[in-house]
Amino acid sequence: MSGHNKWSTIKHKKGKADAQRGKIFTKIGREIAVAVKSGGADPETNSKLKDAIAKAKANNMPNDTVLRSIKKASGEGMSDNFEEITYEGYGPCGVAVIVETLTDNRNRTAGDMRHYFDKFGGNLGTNGCVMFMFDQKGVIVIENDGTIDEEKIMMDALEAGAEDVEASDECFEITTAVSDFSAVRDILEVKGYSFAIAEVQYIPQTETTLTDEKDVLMMNKLIEHVEDSDDVQNIWHNWENCDE
């Protein structure tokens, strides 16, 4: 697996999530709302909602907050109409970037994304311009706290249908086909595992290294500003030496 998903990055992301928990919960709540509106309020018959709830759990979102989000989205008075739009572009030195958004105003979001890419040394591209550089995979990360038997978790994950399991001193990183992600996650959850990350990700096939300090600064600023947008759910890229 790519260094893009190593534990140093994961820990930083989790720390960032802790610092911005309110904003993270708002973004996940929006995902839950869109899932409910598109497929109903029952996670057993709505796989998209089930995935969103799993993401909420991995981010320590309280159950009552999740239930409130589902209830609100199910109500007749729910007027928010969010649209899923994915943007593709390039950061400094051709770093490939994918941005997933949920927006109630596509003109505002498109303008914001174009502004961020232009301002920080990149440019917004057309659909498909970088998507081919990534593989979409289910990613489940379980922290290695010293109590988990490596052979057992590998066997459990592979028997559940995972494609690969990578073990390190810090964590176990399990990858699945997108179509198998929900089933693998559910089986592992039933077996008692808890997840630091459980989501579908865009994994870069190759990575780009930035050596110039200015390019590194600009790429960090691009990521920071895009992540801070209320419309953005996720940003994926193929920058190897990121400090995220």
Structural description of this entry:
With 244 residues, the protein is of the alpha+beta class. Helix content is 44%, strand content 21%. The strands form 2 sheets. It has a 4-stranded antiparallel sheet with strand order 3-1-2-8. A 4-stranded antiparallel sheet has the order 5-6-4-7. Strand 1 and strand 2 form a beta hairpin. The protein is globular. 34% of the residues are buried. Mean pLDDT is 88; it is low at 1-5.
* Helix share bin: 40-55%
Number of strands: 8
Strand fraction equals 15-25%
Specify the number of helices.
Answer: 8
Largest sheet: 4 strands, antiparallel
CATH class of the largest domain: Alpha Beta
End-to-end CA span: 18 Å
Rounded mean pLDDT is 88
How many domains? The number is 3
Short description:
The protein is of the alpha+beta class. It is built from 8 helices and 8 strands.
Helices, strands, pairings?
Layout: H1 7-19, H2 21-39, H3 47-58, H4 63-74, E1 83-90, E2 96-103, H5 106-119, E3 123-124, E4 134-143, H6 150-160, E5 164-167, E6 171-176, H7 181-190, E7 197-204, H8 213-228, E8 232-237
Helix pairs in contact: 2-3, 2-4
